[in-house]
Amino acid sequence: MANLSIKGVPDDIAERLRQRAARNHRSLQGELMAIIEQAAGEPKPVPSHAFQCASKSIEQIAAEHRARFPQPIAHGPDAVDIIRTERDVR
User: Fold this and answer.
1) Burial class of residue 32 in the structure, from the number of CB atoms within 10 Å of its CB (0-12 exposed, 13-18 middle, 19+ buried)
2) What are 21-69's pLDDT values in tens digits?
3) Helices (H) and strands (E) in the chain, counts
4) What are phi and psi of 43, to 5 degrees?
5) Dist. CA 63–CA 28, nearest whole Å
6) What is the pTM of this model?
7) Angle, alpha carbons 37-42-46 (nearest 5°)
């Protein structure tokens, strides 16, 4: 196994790393190894649908919604009434 050394780490960064290690119930060495493993790991692929979702503007989505539902709902159920009904069923 290789040994790595980082010299000249500012005191505030070293302290934050010690605190992070304590929060994660690790030694400083273990915490640094976890950080390095995560950084050196394989990049996670971005789902293709993530790009498709962001391809429309809010205005385009609103226009499509208005085209599908041109008439507003006159008298729909009140959200508070729906929540009360669901809560009372339990």
Assistant:
1) middle
2) 999 999 999 999 999 998 998 777 766 665 665 678 888 888 998 898 8
3) 5, 0
4) -65, 140
5) 54
6) 0.47
7) 130
Whole-Å CA distances, 33 to 15, 19, 28, 29: 16, 15, 9, 6
Domain locations along the chain: 11-40
Q: State whether the Cα torsion 70-74-75-79 is positive or negative.
A: positive
Q: Rounded to whole angstroms, how far apart are CA atoms 9 and 11? A: 6
The answer to whether 28 and 21 have CB atoms below 8 angstroms apart is yes
Q: Which residue has the tokens 């500012």?
A: 10
